[in-house]
Design goal:
5 helices, 49% helix, 243 residues, alpha+beta
Length: 243
């Protein structure tokens, strides 16, 4: 059973429409995005290495005359070609992901559709989950909540990357539950986890925690009893909270 504190979301002085920039927090958000891009490039490099090795191995068999027949030679040539096609898809992913930018802007709350934000987060983080051998379900949920679209995207990106850092192997998935005037978005990690849980002092936890608090929400951590799982819970209001 999950042990979750009672949720009472309250307005916060920085949760509103303002052109005032918290430069220290803006720097931390920028650093988190820079760290994410660096890790993404490393993981994409790992993914490219596999098809390259397969392609080189197939061509080596042909060039060294180790094929026993023309049919076998054609089989290895086809394998090399399929591997090269895999490269094209990976390179296209690299180009697309390299264009990702999330503006570091002051907070402006508005009604945000959650589905499109979650799809963006999934597309950005799925290559990393695949490289680490994690089961990562595509989030299929719809909700409208009160948030800043860029701050929400950065917060959810940090949550997912924090989650990836806690799990050795297993599954990662989002769930959504309405609670009164609150949307509870949970990131569940199930499988072999790192013991003890680490990284709550990292940017991947601190930036989401501060961003969600600025949007009058909370970021909580719940550990089910007698289970190899942990849940990071993002709670945000469905509509504006009156001061």
């Amino acid at each position: 059973m999950l042990q979750i504190p009672n949720l009472e979301l309250a307005p916060t002085p920085i949760a509103g429409d303002s052109d005032t920039m918290d430069w220290e927090f803006a720097f931390r958000r920028s650093e988190m995005l820079r760290q994410f891009k660096a890790e993404l490039l490393v993981n994409l490099g790992h993914e490219l290495r596999g098809p390259l090795s397969s392609q080189i191995g197939a061509l080596d068999l042909i060039l060294t005359g180790l094929c026993e027949s023309v049919d076998e030679m054609q089989e290895f040539a086809a394998a090399a070609r399929n591997s090269a096609q895999g490269h094209i898809h990976l390179i296209a992913d690299c180009i697309e992901l390299s264009r990702y930018e999330s503006p570091i802007l002051p907070l402006h709350l508005q009604q945000v559709e959650l589905a499109s934000t979650l799809q963006q987060i999934y597309q950005l983080t799925e290559p990393i989950a695949r490289d680490r051998g994690l089961q990562y379900d595509r989030p299929e949920m719809t909700a409208c909540l009160q948030a800043d679209p860029h701050w929400l995207e950065q917060a959810l990106l940090g949550m997912v990357m924090w989650g990836f850092g806690q799990i050795v192997h297993g599954s990662v998935r989002f769930t959504l539950e309405p609670l009164s005037d609150i949307w509870q978005l949970s990131l569940s990690l199930s499988g072999k986890l790192r013991v003890p849980l680490a990284g709550r002092d990292s940017l991947y936890w601190q930036v989401p925690q501060a961003a969600i608090a600025a949007m009058s929400g909370q970021l909580l951590l719940a550990v089910p009893t007698q289970a190899q799982s942990v849940v990071a819970i993002c709670c945000l209001p469905r509509r504006a909270i009156a001061a």
